């Protein structure tokens, strides 16, 4: 797996620590390389700075182990020796053995990173990400590896072993994901990455194709730079000290923001980083980024504000009418005021009126209510079917009717079927139009409320994606996709082990218990943030990829794999898988649209947004109508999935 996707979990531990829970840290700083001509100046100082920051946040010095090229003013008793491979692995084993459920382990590395051919096949055909200890050497042909390097495979096994036991892991990496061979770039900065040429990796060494397995558990990652960028270190004024740009800012924020989440710490560090001659945008991922640093619970996300404009929009769950609180800092502090959003685009939003000049962060204070779902007047499929629909008709009457409707209620078989605007009942077979069924303890009115709330969310979300998606002049999709089916095996109401995979066209039909797997690859020349959402026939919206907050950013040519299983109780019908790819904007945070799957994270789509969509797709001078030369804020691929009827299935 790539370092940036499944390597070091950055766990959001405990703010006050839970009773009996402990935090242990292993900090590695590699400044002096014993074999490679690749010395750095900052990693030893970085390790000392991180140790100080952890002590300031309440971590006991006795629980901090530092392996560094030199003791650069470390807390007493924390220095354990040189950062060579054997010592690092030994300390990794020791800290894991000493930690139990509820404890937090912090792993920090400052030094060189690189890539090497993947011989295990767990990278899906891509290279391994490696860290270079002090005794790392070049390529060793006899074993097909960079000598003494630490592979992401080894780190994943170590991390997953702790996660499985309930240990929380915090991982911070101040190194390049991939080497470039550059040491200085038009200034004093030095890159922390080595190229394949420097390591002597032969050009004909190739990676083995295989399938990556993601980490599971309480973790998150913090990285000094994007996967296609270099991480740099710089001299600190005239002091003679060097530090990684990321470590320096991160340590400052950790000291200054006691109640911040890791996501807020990352945002603050990014905003305050001293930029060199090249871009360096830190990255974060993991299921606990929204939790407080060394704490539990969740922290409300804040968005950047620049020149009165919010650097977030519809794709981040914002909507016109949202009321936002304004702040001077990315975490904590008293609000400077409040403002309401009156224009919301895909990645930008504006306020009604001016905002204080010092307001550079904003968080949602009160979301705008979603627009109501529009229903047509109910229709009886068979007026003489002998059922009494008085209760259902009374429940539907409370919603009113609209001339231009989103859904058409059809009374059939003693139930209410919710057909699309075309009013067709069961077009894909018996039961394929979703029914409103009262669950235990529900009245018809409350059941209707529940189903219509889900329907409204699903339809508005589809409307959002259809509106924001751009049209291509070339007709070439942003993603190359291959589908496979593993035939399902039924065991009563449960699914058994699926069979052997084979190519499939999902639109031709899948059976309940079938597994659908897809491989998708970025075929554009720029990075894409990719999300997969599944819209079922009963108005459910399910996040398929990414899961667990892992990074969904694919570089050009990079691919990933995801899968889903058709519910064994699924009725026949047409369902839809949406592959959503957002082009990465300069200095933009990663866009994960699976956050919008839950209705509480997306609050509707008003008419002004629809008007913006229409204007967005208008022709530019010199182009054909309906096409634009501007980059689309969203590339969308829609895959219909036909669920075949079960044996003996009848309408529900």
SSE layout:
Layout: H1 3-6, E1 23-29, H2 43-56, E2 64-68, E3 79-81, H3 85-98, E4 104-110, E5 113-116, E6 128-131, E7 139-140, E8 145-146, E9 150-151, H4 152-164, E10 168-174, E11 190-191, H5 196-199, E12 219-223, E13 232-235, E14 242-244, H6 245-256, H7 262-272, E15 283-285, E16 303-306, E17 309-310, E18 323-327, E19 337-344, E20 349-351, E21 361-366, E22 379-380, H8 390-397, E23 408-412, E24 415-419, E25 435-436, H9 444-468, E26 479-486, E27 490-491, E28 494-495, E29 502-503, E30 515-522, E31 528-535, E32 541-545, E33 553-554, E34 559-565, E35 573-583, H10 607-616, E36 635-643
Parallel strand pairs: 1-2, 1-4, 2-3, 4-10, 10-12, 22-23
Antiparallel strand pairs: 5-6, 6-9, 7-8, 11-13, 12-15, 13-14, 16-17, 16-21, 17-20, 18-19, 18-21, 19-20, 23-24, 24-25, 26-29, 26-30, 27-28, 30-34, 31-32, 31-33, 31-35, 35-36
Helix pairs in contact: 2-6, 6-7
């Amino acid at each position: 797996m790539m370092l940036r996707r499944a390597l070091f979990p950055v766990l959001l531990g405990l703010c006050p620590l839970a009773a009996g829970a402990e935090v242990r840290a292993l900090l590695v700083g590699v400044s002096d390389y014993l074999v490679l001509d690749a010395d750095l100046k900052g990693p030893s100082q970085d390790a000392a700075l991180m140790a100080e920051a952890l002590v300031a946040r309440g971590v006991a010095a006795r629980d901090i182990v530092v392996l560094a090229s030199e003791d650069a003013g470390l807390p007493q008793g924390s220095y354990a020796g040189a950062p060579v491979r054997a010592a690092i692995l030994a300390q990794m084993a020791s800290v894991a053995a000493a930690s139990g459920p509820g404890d937090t382990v912090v792993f920090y590395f400052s030094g060189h990173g690189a890539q090497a051919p993947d011989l295990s096949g767990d990278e899906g055909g891509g290279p391994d990400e490696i860290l270079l200890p002090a005794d790392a050497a070049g390529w060793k042909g006899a074993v097909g590896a960079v000598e003494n390097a630490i592979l992401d495979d080894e780190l994943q096994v170590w991390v997953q072993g702790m996660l499985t036991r309930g240990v929380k892991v915090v991982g911070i990496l101040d190194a390049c994901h991939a080497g470039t061979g550059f040491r200085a770039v038009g200034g004093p900065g030095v890159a922390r990455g080595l190229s394949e040429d420097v390591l002597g990796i032969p050009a004909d060494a190739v990676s083995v194709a295989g399938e990556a397995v993601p980490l599971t558990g309480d973790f998150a990652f913090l990285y000094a730079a994007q996967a296609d960028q270099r991480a740099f270190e710089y001299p600190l004024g005239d002091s003679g000290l060097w530090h990684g740009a990321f470590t320096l800012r991160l340590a400052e924020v950790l000291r200054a923001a006691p109640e911040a989440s890791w996501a807020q710490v990352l945002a603050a560090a990014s905003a305050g980083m001293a930029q060199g001659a090249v871009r360096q945008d830190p990255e974060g991922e993991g299921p606990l980024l929204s939790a407080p640093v060394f704490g539990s619970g969740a922290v409300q996300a804040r968005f950047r504000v620049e020149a009165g404009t919010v650097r977030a929009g519809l794709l981040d769950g914002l909507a016109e009418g949202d009321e936002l609180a304004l702040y001077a800092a990315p975490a904590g502090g008293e609000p400077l005021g409040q403002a309401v959003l009156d224009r919301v685009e895909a990645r930008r939003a504006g306020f009604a009126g001016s905002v204080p000049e010092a307001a550079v962060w904003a968080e949602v204070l009160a979301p705008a209510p979603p627009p109501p779902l529009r229903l047509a007047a109910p229709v009886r499929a068979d007026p003489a079917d002998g059922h009494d629909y008085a209760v259902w008709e009374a429940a539907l009457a409370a919603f009113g009717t609209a001339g231009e409707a989103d859904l058409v209620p059809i009374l059939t078989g003693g139930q209410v079927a919710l057909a699309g605007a075309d009013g067709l009942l069961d077009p894909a077979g018996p039961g394929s139009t979703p029914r409103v069924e009262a669950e235990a303890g529900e009245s018809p009115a409350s059941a209707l409320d529940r189903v219509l709330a889900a329907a409204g969310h699903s339809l508005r979300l589809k409307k959002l994606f259809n509106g924001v998606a751009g049209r291509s002049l070339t007709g070439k999709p942003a993603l190359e996709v291959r589908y496979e089916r593993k035939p399902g095996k039924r065991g009563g109401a449960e699914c058994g082990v699926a069979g052997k995979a084979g190519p499939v066209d999902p639109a031709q039909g899948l059976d309940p218990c079938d597994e659908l797997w897809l491989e998708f690859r970025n075929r554009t020349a720029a990075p894409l943030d990719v999300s997969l959402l599944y819209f079922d026939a009963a108005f459910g919206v399910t996040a398929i990829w990414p899961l667990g907050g892992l990074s969904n950013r694919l570089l050009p040519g990079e691919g990933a794999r995801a899968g889903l299983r058709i519910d064994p109780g699924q009725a026949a019908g047409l369902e839809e898988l949406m592959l959503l790819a957002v082009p990465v904007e300069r200095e933009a945070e990663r866009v994960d649209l699976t956050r919008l799957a839950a209705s509480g994270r997306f609050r509707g789509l008003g008419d002004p947004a629809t008007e913006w969509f229409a204007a967005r797709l208008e022709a530019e001078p010199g182009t054909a109508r309906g096409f634009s030369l501007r980059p689309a804020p969203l590339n969308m691929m829609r895959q219909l999935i036909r669920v075949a009827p079960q044996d003996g299935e009848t309408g529900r």
